[in-house]
Specification:
The protein has 168 residues and is an alpha/beta fold. It has one domain: HAD superfamily/HAD-like (Rossmann fold, 3-Layer(aba) Sandwich), CATH 3.40.50. 42% of the residues lie in helices and 15% in strands. It contains six helices and six strands, in the order E-H-E-H-E-H-E-H-E-H-E-H. A six-stranded parallel β-sheet has the order 1-6-5-2-3-4, sandwiched between helices. Strand 2, helix 2 and strand 3 form a beta-alpha-beta unit. The longest helix has 20 residues.
Length: 168
């Protein structure tokens, strides 16, 4: 439950064209430290990525544990589906995102920077997850504490050899 199905340095390094070519049609994104620094609005890089994803034919949903004001502020620039106060890592937010996008577990992927919310949540929902490196090192204290635990999970992941494999 703790291991992602793939790892990338950044959400901006994922091969979205390849994902689309093998049948993926929906992407669930975390926002903070996955796409932009914590609390930041969508920047030019994020806007360009979302325009590219839409042009490829992807349906996209932002899934965040934050309040609506924060999620809406980011979404105002990228104009995709969104769910706030998602309750990650519970599966309900992921299931709702797939319902909204009209996708399912076979053609949806989740992308986020945290194991204990993003990866575990995607795994709970039965969808493939891509763990990406965080955008910035400065984070809220509760996240810093989780990062300490994540270090050991990632160490086990790398030792297992699974970190060298991708589902796509």
């Amino acid at each position: 439950m703790l291991f992602p199905k793939a790892m990338e340095r950044s959400a901006y390094d994922v091969d979205y064209e390849k994902l689309y070519s093998i049948g993926y049609r929906g992407i669930i994104f975390d926002i903070d430290n996955t796409l932009v620094e914590h609390g930041a609005p969508a920047n030019a890089r994020a806007i360009e990525l979302f325009n590219r994803l839409k042009a490829l034919g992807f349906k996209v949903c932002l899934l965040s544990n934050n309040k609506e004001e924060r999620v809406k502020m980011f979404n105002d620039e990228v104009n995709v589906f969104y769910i706030y106060k998602a309750g990650k890592p519970l599966r309900k937010g992921y299931v709702r995102a797939m319902e909204i996008m009209e996708t399912d577990t076979t053609n949806t992927v989740s992308i986020g920077d945290q194991i204990f919310t993003d990866t575990v949540g995607a795994n709970n929902a039965g969808i493939n997850s891509i763990l990406v490196g965080r955008i910035a090192n400065h984070e809220e204290i509760q996240i810093v504490l989780k990062r300490f635990l994540e270090f050991f999970v990632l160490l086990c992941y790398k030792i297992s050899g699974k970190s060298k494999k991708k589902f796509y």
